[in-house]
Amino acid sequence: MTVEELLARADSVQAEGLALIANAGTRTELDAARTAVLGRKSGRLTALLAALPALSPEARRPAGAAVNRAKAAIEAALASREDELAAAARDSQLPRDLTLPARERWRGALHPVTRVIEEIADIFRELGFTIALGPEAETEWYNFGALNFPPDHPAMDLHDTLYLATGSAGEQGDMLLRTHTSPVQIRVMQRHPPPIRILAPGNVYRHDPFDPSHAPMFAQIEGLAVDEDISFVDLKATLTRFAERFFGTSRTRFRPSYFPFTEPSAEMDVQCGVCSGSGCPTCKHSGWVEILGSGMVHPSVFTAAGVDAERYTGWAFGMGPARIALARHGIPDIRLLYESDMRFLGQFR
Q1: What is the largest CA-CA distance in the chain?
Q2: Sign of the C-alpha dihedral, residues 56, 62, 66, 72?
Q3: Domains of the chain
Q4: DSSP state string for 33-68
Q5: 3 state DSSP class of 315
Q6: Which residues contact 126 (CB under 8 A, 6 or more apart)?
Q7: What is the distance between the alpha carbons of residues 319 and 181, in angstroms, rounded to a whole number?
């Protein structure tokens, strides 16, 4: 076969192959077209490839280029037709009545507690606070000792705290699942000199029953501010500003309380947003909803963290975003937040 004949034959095989591929109406017919053109034994284009070595070196280059162009065009046409036939097969399986309503697509959403945490964090970021995180498995010293808990404090008993077995025989060690995020405050004060303004969100664990108002694992958010010459006035002003942004009310009250790590200590209430203070089941008919505990950082806590208690003062607060979510949405049972029931959680998209 001369080079001119081979070039003409390459064009002819390409045209014939493309016609066979275009006319293939099924996958079987397409496979037959592929075999007829590219088959190893009797393929038309394969025969042209086998004839190339008989040509002279000068003629082999243009002839080989023509055969390769024909092969590339046929392979592209095969791939395209294969996609068309696959799409047609999928379409044939669709319902004939295209007026049927489409199935609703499931959409995920943030958990209501996560929404509360993010909203609180955004408010305190505007007030100059940064987010700080810490380990959930803590030592007894970080969880209690550094926070001025006396050795015989009831919270350190097994009925309140979940200790971790650390010995080879399963003996109780000094490691535990943190009962609050306060250890994060100690770790931050150890690593960074004042001024400090942090927000510490995270999960905490307590040996509590799983009932309408308690859970053995829940989220908590604590805040800490340390600087020179800050006082309880700064604490009240900051938390009142937070209440205005989050709850839409500036009506707050502070009640004396006790925490080992703060002195003086106070509980903070906000006016009930459901009844506007007139009394309802959400606020237990008091007109107020307790949202957090707070107070001035105890000097012993500063000493444990290596902060000069003579030079610096500070205040701290802690709140449970799950309880805030209950109050905001009028949810009667905290267990509803942890049961992963999409019929319930889907209301908060």
Answers
A1: 107
A2: positive
A3: 3-92 (no CATH), 112-348 (3.30.930.10)
A4: HHHHHH-TTT-HHHHHHHHGGGS-HHHHHHHHHHHH
A5: strand
A6: none
A7: 10
Partnered with residue 196 across adjacent β-strands are 226
In terms of Cα–Cα distance, which of 319, 309, 273 is closest to 123?
Answer: 319
∠ CA 99-103-106 to the nearest 5 degrees? 155
Residue in the structure block whose two tokens are 């045209």: 15
**What three-state secondary structure class fits 264?**
strand
pLDDT tops 60 at residue 52: yes
d(CA 247, CA 51): 86
And the tokens for 21? 């591929």
Neighbours of 301 (CB within 10 A): 24
Give the separation between CA 50 and CA 287, rounded to whole angstroms. 95
Given a contact cutoff of 8 angstroms between Cβ atoms, the answer to whether 180 and 222 are in contact is yes
What average pLDDT does this structure show over 126-145?
Answer: 93
Rounded CA separation 272/249 (Å): 9
pTM above 0.70, yes or no: no
Per residue in 11-27, pLDDT (tens digit) is 888 888 888 888 888 88
Residue 246 structure tokens: 């989050």
